[in-house]
Amino acid sequence: MTPSDLDDPAFEYPAPGDRDLDAAEYVLGLLSPDQARAIEALAMQDSVIAASIVAWQNRLSPLAAAVTPEFPPPELWHRLALATGLQKVVLRRTVPRRSALEKVWRNLALWRGATFGAAALAAGLAFLVLTPKPLAPEPLLAALSPQGSPGAVFLVRVGERGQATVIAVGRLNIPLDRTLELWALREGAPAPVSLGLLPGGGRTLLRANVTAGTRLLVSQEPTGGSPTGAPTGPVVYAGLLTNG
Amino acid sequence: MLLARCAQGDGIAFRRLYEFQSATLYSVALRITRQPALAADAVHDAMLQVWRNAARFDPARGNARAWLLSLVRYRALDSVARIGREVLGAELPEVADTDPDPLDRLLATREGTALHRCLQEVEADRRNLVMLAFVEGLTHTEVAARVGQPLGSVKSSIRRALLSLRACLGGSA
Fold first, then answer.
1. CATH fold for domain B102-169
2. Gap between the Cα atoms of B125 and A26, Å rounded
3. What is the bridge-based pairing of β-strands A163-168 and A235-240?
4. Which of A195, A200, B72, B75 sits 20 to 30 Å CA-CA off B44?
5. So what's the pLDDT on residue A181?
6. Could you tell me the pTM of the whole model?
7. Residue contact A59–B115, C-beta within 8 A
8. Which residues in chain A are closer than 8 Å to B121, comparing Cβ atoms?
9. DSSP at A220
């Protein structure tokens, strides 16, 4: 309470001794720097205040979704990689995942092929045999998985001329009034580009102007897709396109 | 759990955490600082702290996303308190929210849906003050100046909104 509060006839201060509400004001950022430092010092000694702060952080953090997402400049990751010494580590460790991805994709393709019957499969194989191998460029592959879980939800294969196939392979957890939208964030690009909407299951064919190293992101959007041309909802799945 | 893997020095987990969270973190910091360089610094410092101190995060005390977001917000608020918004000069144009109601975006997550429901129970004027404080990172005094209301009534309106939110959301969320 400050002297100016008393000049205000409408002023009535609710729950003046409620330190849990003081913690909430701290979490929101309402306090002056001096008041904020005082609460921080208190929280170091008083576990009740510390717990209040954590509880309010948990309650209020979903409000971040109300801010239109904006992608940080690409240099930010490079700065972080430099500071953490991760530049080489990350690149080296993504390589072995490629072979595992290829295997899964081949199994999926074969399994689907079987449903078209043996003749179609044989024709496909003949075509494969006739196609000179060196001319076929390696397709780009990516597994898109949710944060905090290694399990892929979508597999993406980008072949010649940017023909992309997206297959839903995992269980999706999206509210009914939301749509999933696929985005490509090219290395060094300031913002992702939409590749299209993804239905909740099955196979989707898209065109994608992407290269190895492009990051694929899936965001939750209102029905019909992002109204702005940039992701407006949270990124729910992501993965890196690699070509071995 | 990505944080647990970060604590073990797993670089891929750290990269994925960045991939998922950087846009949210950066946009929140940018709205508070209104300076791309300061916003990037806030995200950089918070992510570095996560990499170095991930082991100190106690999952029993709440969700990792809230922790990470708070690290970024406190850093952004600190830099604004130190440097000030006015002196910066490079005022961003008022961010055009094409969404008729940005709060609807909360409905994408379970926690967000609960908060959205509880915010609807708060009187619209009070709810807007809470949003101003959170999104723009304004202090009591700045909120009062922005909406042209006496400091005392701004303080009590926000406190009432917080009381209502606590009653509606309950426990330690």
1. Arc Repressor Mutant, subunit A (1.10.10)
2. 20
3. unpaired
4. A195
5. 93
6. 0.72
7. yes
8. none
9. E
pLDDT at B2 over 90: no
What's the CATH architecture for B2-88? Answer: Orthogonal Bundle (1.10)
B147 — contact with chain A (CB < 8 Å)?
Answer: no
Which residues in B lie closer than 8 A to residue A69 (C-beta atoms)?
23-24, 27
Residues in chain A closer than 8 A to B62 (CB atoms):
54-55, 57-58
Contact A16, A49 (CB under 8 A): no
What is the residue extent of each domain of chain B?
2-88, 102-169
Per the structure block, which two tokens stand in for A228?
């702005």
Q: Which pLDDT tens digit goes with each residue over A10-36? A: 566 788 889 999 999 999 999 999 999
CA B70 – CA B77 distance, rounded (Å): 10
* Both structure tokens of A145: 């998985």
Contact A187, A141 (CB under 8 A): no
For chain B, helix, strand, coil in percent to 5 are 75, 0, 25
Please classify residue B113 by burial: count the beta carbons closer than 10 Å to its beta carbon, then call 0-12 exposed, 13-18 middle and 19+ buried. Answer: middle
Any alpha helices (H) in chain A, and if so which ranges? 3-6, 19-28, 33-45, 47-60, 75-84, 87-94, 97-115, 118-130
For A:146-165, CB contacts with B below 8 A are: 147-148
Binned at pLDDT 50, 70 and 90, residue B126 comes out as very high
Please give the average pLDDT of every successive group of 10 residues along chain A, which has 244 residues: 50 81 96 94 94 95 91 87 75 51 63 42 41 57 80 85 84 76 89 88 84 90 85 87 76
